[in-house]
Specification:
Strand content: 35-45%
Number of domains: 1
Radius of gyration: 13 Å
Oligomer: single chain
CATH topology: PH-domain like
Largest sheet: 5 strands, antiparallel
CATH architecture: Roll
Shape: globular
CATH superfamily: Pleckstrin-homology domain (PH domain)/Phosphotyrosine-binding domain (PTB)
Length: 124
């Protein structure tokens, strides 16, 4: 992650736009210039186009990991779509999840477990 005047940029290797009902199915993806920027009052994310969402527009933040992918998943209130950012790194994902928690976002059980695991490992 890098921090500057604009906020905290979570380094991503790829980003995906998916469907809330089937989160592993993406209707768009990009590894050219994915973006997950955590700012003071909102998050800016990009798969193809930049989109800005207030933290209170996020229903919950999930964490999903499988072979070759370590994703932070943003599930939005009143939207059918999701944003997934592949950090390729569980420690980096946990650091970002902690910021979402501090901003008042609800975390899924998987996301909470990752934070607990990192706290026990002394990763923070």
């Amino acid at each position: 992650m890098s921090k500057d005047k604009d906020g905290v940029n979570v380094l991503l290797v790829a980003a995906f736009a998916g469907w809330k009902a089937i989160p592993w199915v993406a209707w768009a993806h990009s590894d050219i210039s994915p973006l997950l920027l955590l700012q003071k009052h909102h998050v800016t994310c990009r798969v193809v186009r930049k989109r800005r969402h207030a933290y209170d527009e996020i229903e919950y933040v999930d964490f999903r990991k499988t072979l070759g992918t370590t994703n932070i998943v943003l599930v939005f209130k009143e939207k059918l779509t999701t944003f997934s950012g592949n950090t390729a790194n569980a420690k980096l994902a946990a650091e970002a999840l902690e910021i979402f928690r501090q901003k008042g976002c609800r975390l899924s059980q998987r996301a909470q477990q990752l934070l607990e695991q990192n706290a026990m490992d002394g990763s923070f």
